[in-house]
UniProtKB/TrEMBL annotation:
Domain Cyclic nucleotide-binding intervals: 408-512
Gene3D superfamilies per record: 1.10.287.70, Helix hairpin bin, Jelly Rolls
Keyword field: cGMP, cGMP-binding, Ion channel, Ion transport, Ligand-gated ion channel, Membrane, Nucleotide-binding, Sensory transduction, Transmembrane, Transmembrane helix, Transport, Vision
GO biological process, any: retina homeostasis
MF term (GO), any: intracellularly cAMP-activated cation channel activity
Family matches, as CDD domains: CAP_ED
Keyword Repeat: no
Protein name: Cyclic nucleotide-gated cation channel beta-1-like
Residues of the signal peptide: none
Organism of derivation: Erpetoichthys calabaricus
Length: 552
């Protein structure tokens, strides 16, 4: 195969030489041209021939290397990004600016922006932020009716003089409902037999989304808003408090209706008619539902019956609100409770076995820092509940940018890198903790996520040889045990709090079983790194090379 390739290259080279020699002879035989033109043409052809000879030599060397050592070519083969075609330059749009206060912003003219905007054919109710904002508007219209219809039915606030103001707001709310039914709800995506339906014409006009009763929009807005809030428990507390206030609101409306039925100021139990009617009745509702006491005694049978029902409903509603508030607060502090339970169990264990105070204080510090920095003690506990694809997406976002910069893994199979990302473990080290010690067997590779570590050496073992920061990698050669480099040759100590990703040797070997080509490439690179480090053990070009040499 080598002889055949070389013969093919020679034949191709001879063909190029013959073609250019013929061209040179044509130029030389042309006697009509001036001598200067002929010599210039000969120089151009000669220069072209020299360039062809150089290209031929380079190509021959590459063919030899590829045939002698096939693995060497795989190291350089990597998917290249498509280069933009020269000559095809996108037309540059005219830039427009608008000035607001003291700042200048680049923007498009409002007419052009308006022409480019179009209403979407389908809306994803779970990810579309515009739909959440629209639900907020629908919820406002729904709350207008829910809160003010009882007031207008009982209190004398709606009069012939202001009826037009009430009707304008009512018609505006109805207009919002109509737009929601025929413009938004018809475009919502939904699932039918496992398929996502996005067609604007494929909807159920009799579904609960298409009805005028918009109470479902209120609960849908709550779900969507909680999904995008970072601290949703605050909104849950506000919502539960609003439920309590609405219960008191309805009770005040009922009390005014009962007082009007009996006669305003007819008995000492009814509303006297003095002051603001809504505030006075709301005060009565608060004392009734919360059962504070000190209320005037009912006189008639209707008043006694009304007050008994009021007491029963107050106790029932108030107990429900207290239970909901307890659940909301409990869910908000569930993580903290989990952390305290682990902390208390660890302290109890250390006290039973009489662990030294210095060790106890370090363990407490580790618990506190890990909880504050990560919000959890073990990230794998959370990720294990997710599907494999989602765990991979999280791992890629968190650590791919760091792992992809490791020279040892550049050029490897991308899927192998993804499988390796899922095996990384995040570990927090306290200031002064030894990440690895000199002489121990290297069974893991370390990637610094946050913080710094120091490589110690020298005669006393305390000299700081180099400081590695976030994004640095050390210990990767020990994963492949090349050249006896599976023992650590220096101490690595955390300088301050350090958060490191750890890849165990066993996990990498389990992955490489399914990727033999990547395994060959990794072993070859590890040999190159090891031999180059042995030859240049007195001159270290950079921090990463020094960490490879000293730590393995």
């Amino acid at each position: 195969q080598l002889i055949f390739s070389l013969l093919y290259c020679h034949v191709e080279f001879v063909w190029y030489v013959c073609v250019h020699l013929d061209l040179l002879m044509v130029y030389n035989q042309d006697k009509e041209r001036p001598p200067s033109v002929t010599s210039q043409s000969s120089a151009i052809v000669t220069e072209r021939l020299q360039e062809l000879v150089r290209l031929f030599k380079d190509r021959t060397e590459k063919v030899k290397e590829k045939l002698i050592d096939p693995e060497s070519s795989s190291e350089d083969e990597s998917p290249s990004e498509p280069k933009p075609q020269e000559g095809k330059i996108a037309p540059k749009e005219e830039e427009h600016y608008c000035q607001m206060m003291c700042c200048k912003f680049k923007t498009m003219p409002w007419m052009r922006r308006l022409k480019k905007w179009s209403f979407p054919d389908s809306i994803d109710p779970f990810t579309n932020l515009i739909y959440v904002l629209w639900l907020f508007l629908v919820t406002l219209a729904w709350n207008w009716n829910v809160w003010l219809i009882p007031v207008r039915c009982t209190y004398p606030y709606q009069t012939p003089d202001n009826i037009y103001i009430w009707l304008v707001v009512d018609y505006l709310c109805d207009f919002i409902y109509i737009i929601d039914m025929f413009l938004f709800q018809t475009r919502l995506q939904f699932v039918r037999s496992g398929d996502i339906i996005v067609s604007i014409c494929d909807f159920n006009p009799f579904s609960e989304r298409m009805t005028v009763n918009k109470y479902m929009s209120f609960f849908e807005f709550n779900d969507r808003l909680e999904a995008i809030l970072s601290k949703a428990y605050i909104y849950r507390v506000i919502r539960t408090t609003t439920y309590l206030l609405y219960s008191l609101h309805c009770n005040s409306c009922l009390y005014y209706w009962a007082s009007d039925y009996e006669g305003i100021g007819s008995t000492r139990w009814t509303y006297t008619g003095l002051g603001n009617s809504y505030i006075r009745c709301y005060y009565f509702a608060v004392k009734t539902l919360i059962t504070i006491g000190g209320l005037p005694h009912p006189v008639t049978l209707f008043e006694i019956t009304f007050q008994l029902l009021n007491y029963f409903s107050g106790v029932f509603a108030f107990s429900i609100m207290i239970g909901q508030m307890r659940d909301v607060v409990g869910a908000a502090t569930a993580g903290k409770t989990y952390y305290r339970a682990y902390m208390d169990g660890t302290i109890k264990y250390m006290n039973n076995y009489k662990i030294s105070k210095d060790v106890q204080n370090r363990i407490k510090t580790w618990y506190e820092y890990t909880w504050k920095s990560q919000g959890m003690l073990d990230e794998q506990e959370l990720l294990v509940q997710l599907p494999d694809k989602m765990r991979l997406d999280i791992a890629v976002d968190v650590s791919y940018s760091i792992v992809s910069k490791v020279p040892l893994f550049q050029g490897c199979d991308l899927q192998m890198i993804y499988d390796m990302l899922k095996k990384l473990r995040s570990v927090v080290y306290l200031p002064g903790d030894y990440v690895c010690k000199k002489g121990e067997i290297g069974r893991a590779m370390y990637i610094i996520k946050d913080g710094e570590v120091q490589v110690l050496g020298g005669p006393d073992g305390k000299t700081v040889l180099v400081t590695l920061r976030a994004g640095s990698v050390f210990g990767e050669i020990s994963l492949l045990s090349v050249g006896g480099g599976n023992r650590r040759t220096a101490d690595v100590v955390a300088h301050g709090f350090a958060n490191l990703f750890i890849l165990d040797k066993k996990d990498l070997n389990d992955i490489l079983i399914h990727y033999p080509e990547s395994q060959k490439l990794l072993r070859k690179k590890a040999k190159i790194f090891w031999h180059s480090s042995m030859q240049n053990n007195l001159c270290f070009p950079n921090e990463n090379k020094l960490s490879q040499i000293l730590v393995g």
